[in-house]
Design brief:
Distance between the termini: 62 Å
CATH architecture of the largest domain: 3-Layer(aba) Sandwich
CATH topology of the largest domain: Rossmann fold
Strand content: 15-25%
Largest sheet: 6 strands, parallel
Number of strands: 11
Number of domains: 2
Pathway: One-carbon metabolism; tetrahydrofolate interconversion
CATH class of the largest domain: Alpha Beta
Order of helices and strands: EHEHEHEHHHEHEHEEEEHEH
Keywords: Amino-acid biosynthesis, Histidine biosynthesis, Hydrolase, Methionine biosynthesis, Multifunctional enzyme, NADP, One-carbon metabolism, Oxidoreductase, Purine biosynthesis
Number of helices: 10
Family: Belongs to the tetrahydrofolate dehydrogenase/cyclohydrolase family.
Bound molecules: NADPH dihydro-nicotinamide-adenine-dinucleotide phosphate, 5,10-Methenyltetrahydrofolate, magnesium ion
Subunit structure: Homodimer.
Catalytic activity: (6R)-5,10-methenyltetrahydrofolate + H2O = (6R)-10-formyltetrahydrofolate + H(+); (6R)-5,10-methylene-5,6,7,8-tetrahydrofolate + NADP(+) = (6R)-5,10-methenyltetrahydrofolate + NADPH
Structural class: alpha/beta
Length: 291
């Protein structure tokens, strides 16, 4: 069996075309969707992300402001930047690149973001609303994964989904979204005993670990759908996922590549959330006028 390669670039392009039309409609009403990205220090994965995000904003006619700071920035300085962005009517989305330097408390920073501008979906209010199935900005990577499955007509209902990883930004929320789509969900992590014994039971396997090519055929049930979230460097410094693509493609039914799989979807969902936020703002202004 040779797996079908899930084309995240193609799907993200289609989503971005729809976002672009929404941007055009907003512009007709005098609103330019604006995203503020805050980058502290020199994390290389963050730099890639920031670069791709800026390109996408430009292509869609959105505004993107980069607020870049040295890794010596204090927590108070960062909090006051967020306060300014919260109060700036031109800014509809605020994204603070994680991880942050050790002197800054990530939780305090996320808590300071106005939930109405929380396009990353990391604020406890967004997380809580997602958990109880209420309207919320969904975290971009998990949401992008669900959109990929939908595009390929892969329905999680009744399927056993195994998620490797339990971070707040990928592992935990992707399991929740799968649960909402009626999957049976198992979480694995670094303390899991005999990882392969769980992953071999997965109809859908999501790997969000951060270890180059850890997942080979021995972890896979034949015919499984495999979603590779990892962004790693291999022994030659080349970008690669958690999954050994050449090996696993011989036994999986569908498989995402790295690059070109989940990554571009993360960006597309961020663009969508930012436009949604701008639309929400306009709606609010309109209802205030009629009061
Ligand atoms: N493509 C994209 O859009 C994005 C890609 N990423 C990439 O996805 C990967 C995961 O990101 P993130 O969730 O932030 O990372 P974290 O480091 O926060 O989480 C990694 C998770 O993997 C678990 N883990 C680590 N080693 C093993 C192991 N040997 N066996 C089983 N589980 C293990 C950890 O377990 P424990 O909790 O016990 O420590 C943890 O839950 C990274 O490579 C990151 O770069 C991230 C965001 C977006
Ligand atoms: N607050 C916050 N939100 C995040 O969503 C967030 C973050 N911080 N910190 C870093 C991680 C990582 N991440 C990526 C998203 C897309 C690509 C991406 O565009 N990848 C492309 C290109 C990769 C390349 O060419 O280098 C691909 O996989 O094809 C990469 C990495 C979001 N993260
Ligand atoms: Mg920190």
């Amino acid at each position: 069996m040779t797996a079908t390669t899930i084309d995240g670039r193609a799907v993200s392009q289609k989503i971005k075309e729809q976002v672009k039309m929404r941007v055009e409609r907003l512009k007709e009403q005098g609103v330019i969707p604006g995203l503020a990205v805050v980058l502290v220090g020199e994390d290389s994965a963050s730099h890639t992300y920031v670069k791709n995000k800026k390109k996408s904003c430009e292509a869609l006619g959105m505004r993107s402001d980069l607020h870049q700071f040295p890794d010596t920035l204090t927590e108070a300085e960062l909090l006051s930047t967020i306060e300014e962005l919260n109060n700036d009517p031109q800014i509809h989305g605020i994204l603070v690149q994680l991880p942050l330097p050790a002197q800054i408390d990530e939780f305090k920073v996320i808590l300071a973001i106005d939930p109405a501008k929380d396009v990353d979906g990391f604020h406890p209010i967004s997380v809580g609303n997602m958990m109880i199935g209420k309207e919320a900005f969904l975290p971009c990577t998990p949401h992008g994964i669900m959109k990929l499955l939908e595009h390929y007509d892969i329905n999680p209902a009744g399927k056993h989904t195994v998620v490797i990883g339990r971070s707040n930004i990928v592992g935990k929320p992707v399991g929740q979204l799968m649960l909402q789509k009626d999957a049976t969900v198992t979480y694995c992590h670094s303390k899991t005993t005999d990882l392969a014994s769980f992953t071999r039971q997965a109809d859908i396997l999501v790997s969000a670990i951060g270890r180059a090519k850890l997942i080979d055929q021995s972890f896979i049930k034949p015919g499984a759908v495999v979603i590779d979230v990892g962004m790693n460097r291999d022994e030659n410094g080349k970008l690669c996922g958690d999954v050994d693509f050449a090996d696993v493609s011989q036994t999986a039914s569908f498989l995402t590549p790295v690059p070109g799989g989940v990554g571009p979807m993360t960006i597309a969902m961020l663009m969508e959330n930012t436009v949604q936020s701008a639309e929400n703002g306009l709606q609010k202004d309109k209802s205030a006028e009629t009061m």
